[in-house]
Amino acid sequence: MEEITYLEAIRQALWEEMDQDQRVFLLGEDIGVYGGAFKITKGFLEKFGEERVIDTPLAESGFVGAAIGAALVGMRPVVEMQFADFISCAFDQIVNMAAKHHYRLGEPVPMVIRAPYGGRLHAGPFHSQCPEAWFVHSPGLKVVAPSTPYDAKGLLKASIRDPNPVIYCEHKYLYRHAKGEVPPGEYVLPLGQADVKRQGSDITLITYGAMVQEGLEAADQMSEQGIEVELVDLRTLYPLDTETILASVKKTGKTLIVHEAPQVCGIGAEIAAVIAQEAFRHLDAPVMRLTAPHTPVPFSSPLEDFYLPNAAKIASKLKDLASY
Amino acid sequence: MAIEVVMPQMGQSVAEGTVLEWFKREGERVEKDEALLTINTDKIDVEIPSPGAGTLSRILVQAGETVPVGTALATIEGPEPDRPPAGTTPSAPTPESLRSREETSRWYSPAVLELAERQGLGPSELQEIRGTGQSGRVTKQDILNYLAERDAGTAPRVDDEVVPFTPMRRAIAEHMVRSKQTAPHATAIIEVDMTTIAEFREREKATSAERRGAPLTFLPFVIQAAVQALTKHPWLNAWVEHDRIVLKREINIGIAVALQDGLIVPVLKGAGNLSLAEIARQADDLARRAREKRLTPMEVQGGTFTVNNLGVSGILLATPILVQPQAGILGVGAVTRRPIVIGNETAIRSLAYLCLSFDHRVIDGAMAGQFLQEVKARLEGFDPTAQ
Prior knowledge:
The complex is a heterodimer.
Chain A (H helix, E strand, L loop, with lengths): L2 E3 H15 L3 E5 L15 H5 L4 E3 L4 H13 L3 E5 L10 H15 L6 E6 L14 H5 L5 E3 L4 H13 L4 E6 H6 L1 E3 L13 E4 L4 E5 L3 H14 L4 E5 L2 E3 L3 H11 L2 E8 L4 H12 L9 E5 L8 H7 L3 H13 L1
Parallel strand pairs in A: 2-3, 2-4, 4-5, 5-7, 6-7, 10-11, 10-13, 13-14
Antiparallel strand pairs in A: 1-8, 6-12, 9-11
Chain B lengths: L1 E5 L9 E7 L6 E2 L4 E7 L2 E6 L4 E6 L6 E3 L3 E6 L32 H9 L4 H5 L12 H13 L14 H16 L2 E9 L1 H18 L6 H14 L5 E4 L2 E4 L5 E7 L2 E3 L2 E2 L7 H16 L13 E5 L18 E5 L3 E7 L2 E15 L5 H16 L7
Helix pairs in contact in B: 6-7, 6-8
């Protein structure tokens, strides 16, 4: 099977969906002539034309609104946020219009907002954020955050085909750092299904996005010390696959949740609460979290390294849990 | 600035160490070079000084844990208090480290209680299970282990005394198992007439301690004879490594020393060049410092052949276990006066058995026999006038 990058997987999903469904079209800043800030849509303008690959002004609220309108009349828009950080400019359109329309009027709003998120590129506080929890907290939205090329492609196709709005969080660091096998031809992965990326009996490690690879590295280190870690890759943050989470926690009794977003009211808080409520009698240690601290993302690279979780920090927490 | 304290490399062959004791607790101030902890490597206890001044912010490896060389043991925060840079929002309080929480040893997690209930373990039975978690907490795994042992009928009863392995006991146990699994042991035994040496020793005993700086036991005579025999039979002065044997140029004699809580084998280095008096003095010095736990790591490494004094415990015969990767070990039985036939007469002589265990992968019985014959000849031919 061919190994491709995470970026290429996203590109292929967009290309294939546009190729087979005339309703799918793209909007975003610099996605046409320039091919996108990260070159995901390079060559799309030439292939699909300017009616389906639309360069927009720097006005997130405006073009997300336009996408909602298009979705309401039967189109399937895919919006690219140049950086996920800019998504807050369109917050009202997303959480009040897109998210609530189906609830209020029973009409579907089939649209995807692609949000290139996350740090480790030393891009500072306005180009490195992880805003996923804002949208998980908003009823009416689905939130997806894949960690591998295979998941990225299958989940983006599922997001485009979903009848209601999906915030698709694609990690910028993974674009060119994550490589993996993707089968030729058509496949779609279901939204709302976590994936156990590594089996283990001693500790459950729950994470997503760029922290999956770090977690797997930490798990390998632990394995050398005889501690077997089970890694649950959430893949979809809402709806949360509590079934997979609880099955794993009930098996191990010990849980570490890792995310790159700050800790307070992050996804980890929700997962910890679900575990406390549904698996209390199976807990053999406190549910632990390892996240970024409660500050903006620092610009300086040493500070950003300090700020972000990584394999070594994860292994240290796992060791604490193992000896608890 | 945080300073990391790591498990030091205490000798080339040492891959891991055990933390025995922390002299400081988390949050305590420590000065540079102040004693911070003791570790045990290869059965040697070493005090580790602090690499810098500051506050011991976090202990990563607790007393009793064994970790590979280079593993971070603790972090020391430098003297500057950590202040957040101006303009940042105050950070949320970091959750307390799991380790810093004081737990009573009889606190049960929900998982433990659930398992105990499901398995019908009553409070009194639960009370007896030994905890291996933080501060002696009973973990889910402890319950599972207990149940397995109980079902196999091997769980200790309440009135049994359970003594966990000390680091030294664990090191001995691991080494013995490894040695037995590595080398097919065979033991050859020969009887030696020690009468001449016994008489010499009897004469010299009173003045020996004074003149030679050490009491004169049988051991130095045997070591000297073994060294001479090893020079003629270098295959027994060797290390066996996988598919090859390394014949060592130096003769370094390991001397097994019994301790209250185990045993240790300090090494008499360069034994090929030493006089009997020097062997006696150095062997006595090593044994004494071994009992006082004052050996350095270098002094328990590099042995090429080992001598084990069985006689001190009154043992006549034994089958010693090799010190890996050495090819031979010589057990020296007790010297006792026994009747023996010499020519057509019965005589009363001072006799001892020498027991050579050897690695049968590389040493065959004939070679072991030749070596023992050589040692025997040297001991029986001892010339008191040459001393």
